Amino acid sequence: MVTLTIDGNEVQVPEGTNLVDAAKSVGLDIPTYCYHPGLSVVGQCRICFVEVEGMPRLVTACSTPAQPDMVVLTDSDRVREARAAVMEFLLENHPLDCPVCDQAGECLLQDYSVEHGLDTTHMVDERRTFPGFERRLIGPQVVQNQNRCIHCTRCIRFTQEIAETADLTMKSRGNHSYIDTYDGKPFDNPWSACAADVCPVGALTVKDFRFRARVWHLVDTESVCPGCSIGCNIHIGHLDGVVHRFVPRENFEVNGWWMCDHGRSLAEGLNDRDVDRPVVRAAHGERVTTWGEMITVLHSMATEAGPAGVVASANLSNEGLFLVKEILVGHFGLEVVVPVESDPPRKIKNGHNEWVSSVDAHANSSGARLIGLPIVDAAGLAGFIKDGRAPLLVLDDRSHPWLTSDEAASALEGRRLAVASRSVTPLAVRAELLLPVASWAETEGTYTSSTGRVQLARRGFVPRGQVLPMWQILFRLGVAAGVYEEGAVSPRSIFERLAKAVGAFEGMTYQQLEAESGITVSAEVLDVVG
Amino acid sequence: MEPILLRARGTPNSRSIVTYHEAGGYESLRKVLGLQAETVIEEVKKSGLRGRGGAGFPTGVKWGFVPRDLPKPKYLICNADESEPGTFKDREIIRVDPHMLLEGIIISSYAIGAHVAYIYIRGEFYSEAVILETAIAEAREHGYLDPNVLNSGFAMDIHIHRGAGAYICGEETALIESIEGKRGQPRLKPPFPAVVGVFGCPTVVNNVETLASVPHIIERGGEWYASIGTERSTGPKLFSVSGHVKKPGVYEVPLGTTFREIIYEICGGIRGDKQLKAFIPGGSSCPILPADKVDIGSDFESVAEAGSMLGSGGLIVMDETVDMVWALENLLAFYAHESCGQCTPCREGADWALDVVRRIRRGYGRPEDVDTLLRIARFASQGMTICPLGDAFCEPIRSFLAQFRHEFEAAIESARPLPPKKQPVLPVRPGHGDFGL
Amino acid sequence: MGQQLTAPITVTPPEQLREVRFDDVMETSINEILVRYPTAQAALLPLLWLCQEKWGWISPGVTAAVAERLGLSPAFVEGVTSFYTMFLRRPPGRYVLQVCTTLSCQLCGAGGLVDHLKAKLGIEFGETSADGRFTLIDVQCLGACGEAPILQINNDYYTDLDVERLDELLDGLK
């Protein structure tokens, strides 16, 4: 450890920590553009100047390691003057087009201009422009406006050091240099939108989110990506019950600062909502019903006429899956399968700059395994459905691609079907009972990644209509069956019972999951299920 | 003074190894191979030789920074990326006496423990690169570049690495990046090249003239070398004289010779017998001095005292007809073109300053422009940027305004009110690989 | 002048440089370059020079071939190529006229040469004459200020020029 003084505060940091991070550890924010904790240090934007006693010149905090007994000033007159000058240089050629810039609200030029800049400029000449590069679709996910670029090279370093695709580069030199791809080819790699994330200004923006909302209106919910078994931490940005985007949330051990474009693309799908009331269908037509009646019918389906088969889902939370195990398997004795699709493989870099690979395309297949539910692949699922004649309860009509196949359709011909759904899917269309179920953003729950990390995804907003999360539907069924007492129930209360009942989760508390970025099950446990 | 670095100038076939041998060439190398490396470094320290590339750092001290016990290869790089406007002395050495340079490189490599040296030569110097290739081939034939140089057990080879049009590659860490196959962008320091240089190994980068001085120091001793010039600026120095003099060219004079002597005696005076207006003593990045400073000595200290720098010894002479607003615009155009673009103050500042000065010259100056220029100069130099290119364009701004402010103010006073429209960068202003910025 | 007239550049047209393969002769030269450096990447500038000598300019196809040969990304190579002004990324004329326009040359009359060249060839800086003979470029200091003004044609320097000598020189270049 190294002890130094920053603005009069005694600071203790591990050896090798730079002054930006050292200052941050005592709550002092040094402005940075080119510096990003996940990327190499280049020290070229020059905004992070600080004064170090005994050094004749200002130093860049990002490239200066903390040293014993260093005395650092982050807010002296010299520092303020230099930062203001750097801000002026950065804005000298910047178009100042904030009203039509989609970075507005999360733009470091805006923030630091207020905090560190001048209230005017000495610039009276024409600004530099890059005709043809103002609103250019540089790739399928990213829009480029070179006029706004501050040449911090974060995006380039992202492609070189993290994505390892090196498909962005700086071309030309000096004041005319600009970001481009080889021969103007599309900037297309599996993580390309992260290049827009790391862009501190509006030079690269994510295409799908452009002009959907001003970011300061968005509500931010901490969640986990539903896209695969890696469990990248994300922020869900939403407004008035509409999900507008996913952006990666820093988690050093899982996804660093990154997420893949596929995961990001799932945000839009969360807004699918055609089914918002329980529906019963019969030969003479369909009618909206109440949950009370729906639960009664489900209960009878589970108990009468030969036991129903259940297709659960590896996309359900640990709590949902635990209730599947307790009620559907334990109480009713139904046969349950959890279908798992392993393709396509995905990977992400963690904070140690190591690749983490997905095992399958589900957020919680590990949770299903740990809770002890049988996992099946496409063939197993097909067999399960084709062999059965009894009614079928499908807890998530998007749990496996096979469910939407023609083969599935013909196998389900003439069979009683209850389906939990959000929208018109092939299964939902033929269901006798249609259960409106909450989306990923509309429910809270914990999920276990393929590395055994149990992580909490919070609820963004309350679903409209009669929509319920799966754990609540199952709980109500449990009440109807007399297993549970009617009363307050929550993911927290279910998780607490899960932690007592399932060895892998022993000792974990919901409180911990709320406070920390995840808890990992023991390696032995993981080995057993893996 | 007897010519030392230019002693072969005028000799027929001066580039050939035969001619070089006749003049006693490669004898210093033979002498050195029997000595301890430390002894060689000591001799160079004793000579007081200071880097001739522009910074004037003591060469022997620089060599001493190389960690000897580090189990990594060491490299010597000869900086022949001569690009500072007004400087063309290294080209002269290569054209006149390439073997003197090679001998200097081999001796210096021996001193720092390097077995491979690269000559980084600017891309435009194509024929000079050919001259060096020929000389290297001769040196290989004669066993001076060999896995076992003159049976001494010392292995040595030299490779030419051609630049491709980037002034910034004269900065030693940009040069190193360029050798490594990257954009020539200066590195953050520390670490310094002596410890982490090219390919992550200890590296010394020395200028052509510096290295060419080394065989003479070995041949005749550090004390002899130190007896030339002034106490702290020792040895002979090549001055590149250009601009409004009758006989421009490269001249070898002892450090300390007055600029009056160089301009009026050695170079025959001002072209057309006009009046001297100003001179830049050390290459275009050094502060300009007015005519009344012409009697100062050309040593590092006297020039510094007069408010400028000796730099690379590129003396640019301007007569009474020169419009100083125009001259500054010309220099700023150079630095704006050559800024690598990584540091904000230099990338933005050089072009901004150029816009302002160009506007003044075109007759659209504004009263606040002088202050704006001084503000740019203040905040793009002295550590605000990774490398000294910031200083290189700010010093001219500061000194032109210090010496000739009245010319700028006069231009501004007579200015028309409306500034012209700037042309956009069309379609994207590429490198001059696309034929011109 | 006493110097041989500059040889023209052999400019390979773009359609022949979409995809590029190195022949055995090139491979031999590449291997000779590679042994000089501990890393393959260090061979980038020499290899780009080699390509420009062979084809006259660096097309995207050449960039891709160089990148693949050295294990680099083509975008990276293009970033490097575009940093250095001497690598030509468009096909040039047979003679690339590079006029130094920096201070010392300007003090010695480079401005007059530039005006003359533009008028005589009917092109601006950055343009190639319609007959494909000349490309005119303004360059920064060529480092031979003592012999100003200077014109570099392809690899050769022509120094101490005036308008008459320039005309004579250009007329000889076919």
Sum this structure up briefly:
The complex is a heterotrimer of chains A (530), B (437) and C (174). By secondary structure, chain A is an alpha+beta fold.
Order of helices and strands of chain C: HHHHEHHEEEH
The helical percent of chain B reads 40-55%
Q: Give the C-alpha Rg of chain B.
A: 22 Å
Residues in β-strands, percent of chain C: 5-15%
What proportion strand of chain B? 5-15%
Low-confidence stretches of chain C: none
- How much is the radius of gyration of chain C in Å? 18 Å
Average pLDDT for all residues of chain B: 93
Instruction: Give the tally of β-strands of chain C.
Output: 4
User: How helical, in percent, are the residues of chain C?
Assistant: 40-55%
What is the averaged pLDDT score of chain C?
94
Strand order of the largest sheet of chain B: 6-5-9-7-8
Oligomer: heterotrimer
Main beta sheet of chain C: 4 strands, mixed
Give the number of helices of chain C.
7
Q: What series of H and E elements makes up the topology of chain B? A: HHHHEHHEHEHEHHEEHEEHEHHHH
Give the CA-based shape of chain B.
Answer: globular
Describe this structure in words.
- The complex is a heterotrimer of chains A (530), B (437) and C (174).
- With 530 residues, chain A is α+β, with helices and mostly antiparallel strands.
- Helices cover 27% and strands 19% of the residues of chain A.
- In chain A, helix 2 packs across helix 3, helix 7 crosses helix 13 and helix 8 runs parallel beside helix 13.
- Chain A is elongated, with a radius of gyration of 27 Å.
- Chain B is of the alpha/beta class and 437 residues long.
- In chain B, 41% of the residues lie in helices and 11% in strands.
- Chain B has a five-stranded mixed sheet with strand order 6-5-9-7-8, covered by helices on one side.
- In chain B, helix 13 runs antiparallel to helix 16, helix 14 runs antiparallel to helix 15 and helix 15 packs antiparallel against helix 16.
- Chain B is globular, with a radius of gyration of 22 Å.
- The N and C termini of chain B lie far apart (45 Å).
- Helices cover 40% and strands 10% of the residues of chain C.
- Chain C has a four-stranded mixed sheet, covered by helices on one side.
- The relative contact order of chain C is 0.15.
- The mean pLDDT of chain C is 94.
- At the B-C interface, strand 3, strand 5, strand 9 and helix 13 of B face helix 2, helix 4, helix 5 and strand 2 of C.
